[in-house]
Amino acid sequence: MNKLNHIAFIMDGNGRWGKKKKKGRNFGHYAGVKTVKKIVQASIKFRVPIVTFYVFSTENWKRPKNEINFLFNLVKSYFDTELNNVIKNGIKINILGELNKLPKNLKFILKKTVKKTKKNKKITVNLALNYGSKKEIINTFKKIKSKKFTERNVDNNLYTKSVSDPDILIRTGGKKRLSNFMLWQLAYTELYFLDKLWPDFMPNDLKKIIKGYYKIKRNFGGI
Predict the structure, then answer these.
(1) In sequence order, which residues have a C-beta less than 8 Å from that of residue 169 and are 6 or more positions away?
(2) Active-site residue, 200 included
(3) 146: alpha, beta or left, given left = phi > 0 and alpha = psi -120 to 50?
(4) At what angle do helices 104-117 and 65-88 cross, to 10 degrees?
(5) Which CATH architecture has domain 6-215?
(6) Residues 15, 25: contact at Cβ < 8 Å?
(7) Whole-model pTM?
(8) CA-CA to 30 of 20 to 30 Å: which in 10, 37, 167, 199?
(9) In whole angstroms, what is the distance from residue 82 CA to residue 105 CA?
């Protein structure tokens, strides 16, 4: 049976879901946070050690300013109110991406959350914020320019240097693309593209994907 260490999620469809409900894109983002919480709890139940959520890409700065501000306030307010529960539930939070462009109050709560949860061991939750894989790879090459270029040296200088590559990538929302997400790390990942919008993605959907993954023969170039 395949080993399962890491599942990554591209949470597409929040805005479309909110508009479909005739309550606007931001309502969809709010619902999307609830889905993240459900999926983290389900991942703990299914004994998945690491999950990564693509929260905000380097390309998402092109969105309307009010939507960007809502997204950032949503993340900030969640950790303002839920940090104690996150700690209590043994969840370790990591941030992947460049924090320098994020608002000061958001950076503060994120750094506080990372620090307060660093000893937790039940599950590691990576939040990709202001994340772009191409930029990550370029920055990695800059870091190792005076060293020998090897796969190991690249791995050790990525944002994900302390975690294994994803075994599964799940993208909701009906699109079949990676959108500049973990391009290096997804080389041998099993890809699942779902038509469901992210707020409609349920723990049972995750369970079905995991069950299917365990049945796949993974050769990694062999026979």
Answers:
(1) 7, 8, 9, 10, 178, 182, 186, 189, 190, 191, 192
(2) no
(3) alpha
(4) 20
(5) 3-Layer(aba) Sandwich (3.40)
(6) yes
(7) 0.95
(8) 167
(9) 16
| Alpha carbon distances (Å) from 35 to 19, 73, 102, 134, 172 | 17, 17, 23, 28, 12
Average pLDDT over residues 148-174: 93
DSSP string, 67-96: HHHHHHHHHHHHHHHHHHHHHHTTEEEEEE
Is residue 45 over pLDDT 90?
A: yes
Indicate which residue of 2, 5, 60, 73 is catalytic: 60
Residue 223 clears pLDDT 70, i.e. is over it: no
DSSP assignment of 114-160, as one string? Answer: HHHHTT--SEEEEEEEEE-HHHHHHHHHHHTTTS---HHHHHTTSTT
pLDDT top residue among 173 and 142: 173
pLDDT at 149: 79
* 155 flagged as catalytic: no
pLDDT digits (tens, 9 = 90+) for 168-221: 999 999 999 999 999 999 999 999 999 999 999 999 999 999 999 999 877 666
Task: Measure CA 1 to chain center.
Answer: 25
Distance of CA 64 to the CA centre of its chain: 22
Regarding beta strands 168-171 and 123-131, do their DSSP bridges make them parallel or antiparallel, or are they unpaired? Answer: unpaired
Can you say whether residue 177 is alpha, beta or left, with left for phi > 0 and alpha for psi between -120 and 50 degrees?
beta
